[in-house]
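User: Could you check the structure of this?
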Amino acid sequence: MNSAKSQGTALVTGASSGIGAIYAERLAARGFDLLLVARDEQRLEAAASKLRDEHGVQVEVLKADLTQKDEVLKLEQRLRSDSSITLLLNNAGVASDGLLANADMDQLERLIQLNVTSVTRLASAAAASFAKAGRGTIINIASVVALFPERFNATYSASKAYVLSLTQSLNAELNGTGVQVQAVLPGVTRTEIWERSGIDASGIPAEMIMEAGEMVDAALSGLDQGELITIPSLPDAADWDAFVAARLVLAPNLSKSKAATRYK
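Assistant: Sure, the predicted structure tokens are below.
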């Protein structure tokens, strides 16, 4: 049962630290009850206690490793069956370092499970539940490397490009249902993801690194403004609009009965 002032329950994955933990605090301040999901139960419980005290909302903690299919399925079922959930934040993710040719493929498979498969399953469950209710919000955390894959390693960049594409397609599918969809594309953000992934971020210029709180506040402002795609660092939204317009110019010519003359 939700709190008296609640806007429903926000399910936040990767909620124990960084972007997820800040989103949890901001959403609690907005009147959402919370279902916090991560592997580190101790940190989740500490965060939950603080959020209950400071914001008077209900907070449930669920320990889950979303690289494990059975644990994703349990969370998916919760999304499908719990009508109190009104917002899904697909935030849990991991980066990787190094070249694809030299990669630990088991590690990359876990990355794909977390960054792609679990995001897809949870978004599907939320879409079904929220569309049936005629309301709800799905936020998927992608990355600017979805737009500039050459600047980072192949698998992580591809996984975030998938999240961007998934969000755009899902938004079209949910048109008219009352469900809001957003993809957030942060640049370099000061979180634990770098050290966890074995990446040395010390060489990145300070002017390229955004504090996580500023990133989340910008993303929520974008959500309030109804943006489908929010790029917190981008100074001029017209640049994104031009990018989208250029893509749409291609659309009528992407599938034709004859090959282009340059191939003949």
